[in-house]
Specification:
- Two copies of one chain form a homodimer.
- The first copy, chain A, is built from nine helices and three strands.
- Chain A binds a DNA duplex (30 and 30 nucleotides) through α3.
Chain lengths: 226, 226
Amino acid sequence: MSAQPDLPTRTPTTTPAREAVVTSIRRAIVMGELRPGDKLTEVPLAASLDVSRATLREALNLLVQDGLLVQEPYRGFSVTSLSPEALRDIAATRVPMDLIAVHAILSDGSGRRIGLLLEAWDQFDRRAFDPDPLVQHEAHVDFHHGLWAASENSMLLRLWPVTEAMSTIALAQDQAAHHDPARAHRFHRLLIDAIVARDLPLIEQRLHEHIVDAAEELLTLEGGTA
Amino acid sequence: MSAQPDLPTRTPTTTPAREAVVTSIRRAIVMGELRPGDKLTEVPLAASLDVSRATLREALNLLVQDGLLVQEPYRGFSVTSLSPEALRDIAATRVPMDLIAVHAILSDGSGRRIGLLLEAWDQFDRRAFDPDPLVQHEAHVDFHHGLWAASENSMLLRLWPVTEAMSTIALAQDQAAHHDPARAHRFHRLLIDAIVARDLPLIEQRLHEHIVDAAEELLTLEGGTA
DNA sequence: GGCGGAGGATTGTCTGACAACCCGTGACAG
DNA sequence: CTGTCACGGGTTGTCAGACAATCCTCCGCC
């Protein structure tokens, strides 16, 4: 009935339209076009994304899934907004969770997990200074994801989407929070060094610097609880 | 930091139908009527639950949200299934996460968090031996949720649904895994005692007994057969 | 000025349909 | 006999339009 579509369908699971919607909205949040607290009204949004309302709602449900959006019955979807205490909680909780990953990496005798970690570093290193700020953001996020993935702890992997979403929102909270890419690069480098050196106290200290201090900085920027 | 404008479950006067679907399916998983790996076909399921396919799909998406189900494009929804390594990861990860909560509880000078914890214990104590096994399960789960909630750490609260779902699946993995309610009751009691005594090493040991040992036990049960 | 109710706007749900896709089956060539 | 490929049934993904339930705003009334 047709010429053979010789091209191997590039994506093994092609064309769920809602995926496009999901990435589109996620990008809008990362880029600050959608800010925490913004309400999403379905009909105009569906029209602007050229999908039906049902498909849009499926995509929105997926975003609620990792906490990027919140849904209140009969009141609709809106971008998650974090209180200052929530921001501190995120930072304070991420440090011990990262330490769980680090422990798993260091307790692996084969060295494979360290290899995974260094690979994550390499990929970050290549994209950390990309001109596209979206790529920079993804590189940063992927590095932290790589740290958890290198632990080969499936529980952490399941918890990652929620964690990533919270961190994304935290950064999006302050639009002006364009953290200096060189600074993130340096922190990540120092962290890798400490892990390779297997210096647990140093690892913890550097995680603390990277995460908690950054959060406190965000909070001071935010200032008057606006 | 005194009066938190409490957010009472602001019921929207009527329950969205998908909530009923969600609890129905969740109950089926808890009760072992749906077992890990089972596939859910939409049309018969929607008919049996007396909702439209669209509403059913919204409910299924919500369940994917906390990890109780997995969705593969064009292959449908199925109950999450965990490998033995995943089961170990869950147990091994929950202990340090519970410790995060415990630290937050103990670092609260006002004693309010301890009060919340004891309240959670009371509610567990009242339902631990309920004749309905579903109530028993909920009492157990609510106790652990109460531990995290008592920490007043909003990040942990966000991570809870995923954690709960993983633990639920882990227990559902082996249908024969009705844990002796008296045993759970004793463990929880011992844990509370250790926390009140502020004995950190003892707390950790008892968490380990309750979580990791239970997981290993599940694995030996499962390993013999299968 | 405060209160209560009408009206519009928005979300929740339904029905029915069609397109896209997966999988098992069986014909066919080697 | 074996591997490949087309075919068809079954299932999921998406659409359109419609109606009910709920929220929100504003206006008249006391």
